[in-house]
Amino acid sequence: MLGHLEGGGRVILLEPKPLLTKAAKMPGLDGRKMSKSYGNTISLRDSPTKVEYSINTMPTDPARVRRNDPGDPQKCPVWKFHEIYSSDEVKAWVAEGCTNAGIGCLECKRHVVDAVLNELYIIQQRASEFNAQPELIRTIVSEGCEAAREAARWTLDEVRHALFLNHR
Ligand code: SF4
Fold first, then answer.
1. Nearest to residue 76, comparing CAs of 58, 56, 97?
2. Which of 20, 63, 147, 158 is deepest in the core (most CB within 10 A)?
3. Is the model's pTM score more than 0.70?
4. What's the pLDDT score for residue 8?
5. For the chain, what percent of residues have pLDDT higher than 70?
6. Rounded distance, CA 160 to CA 168, Å?
7. CB within 8 Å of 123: residues ≥ 6 apart
């Protein structure tokens, strides 16, 4: 819907713009987009053992059959995780080590495992704090609903005003 009402000199119902980071779309463990229906996900509540297993069993560049076969990170789903989680230094180490078979795939995946575990640890700690306080959750939800109602009321008033429906 157009945000600008012609002749009204007002802007209402402004279309929201996306604010996406470069990791807005997470790759799945098999290189496709991460989706529950593909069975290629890492869940926020997965245990460290499960996360480690999931990443260590990710497919890699099919050319790397043996440890000393060179590979190409661009053909490997693990690389997409490095692009999100790894520093430039680690990415350069992977690019070099993969293409000249200087590193093994498990060695390469270790950096991704550690980065994902670090990230999940923070999320899981926070989740367990909230889990222990159901009353707090109820309060947050109720305050959120009230704030949403208030915002909706404000928007409806704006629309009515713009459409000259304020006679009631
Ligand atoms: S070394 Fe890393 S980027 Fe290269 S094929 Fe193995 S897992 Fe993939």
1. 58
2. 158
3. yes
4. 58
5. 92
6. 10
7. 44
Tokens of 19: 């604010």
User: How much of the chain is helix, strand and coil, in % rounded to 5?
Assistant: 55, 5, 40
Name, in order, each residue with C-beta under 8 angstroms of 95's C-beta and a sequence gap of 6 or more.
73
- H/E element holding 10? strand 10-11
The tens digit of pLDDT for each residue in 60-96 reads 999 999 999 999 999 999 999 999 999 999 999 999 9
pLDDT tens by residue, 125-157: 999 999 999 999 999 999 999 999 999 999 899
Q: How far is the CA of 140 from the centre of ligand 1 (A)?
A: 44
Cβ atoms of residues 117 and 52 within 8 Å: yes
Per-residue tokens: 154 = 């404000």
| Residue whose C-alpha is closest to residue 151's, from 107, 118, 143 | 143
Q: Classify 39 in phi/psi space as left (phi over 0), alpha (psi -120 to 50) or beta.
A: left
Dihedral of CA atoms 136, 142, 145, 147 in degrees, nearest 10, equals -80
Q: Which of 108, 110, 112 to mutate to test the pocket of ligand 1 (most atoms within 8 A of CB)?
A: 108
- The best mutation among 61, 67, 68, 69 to test binding of ligand 1, ranked by most ligand atoms within 8 Å of the C-beta, falls on 61
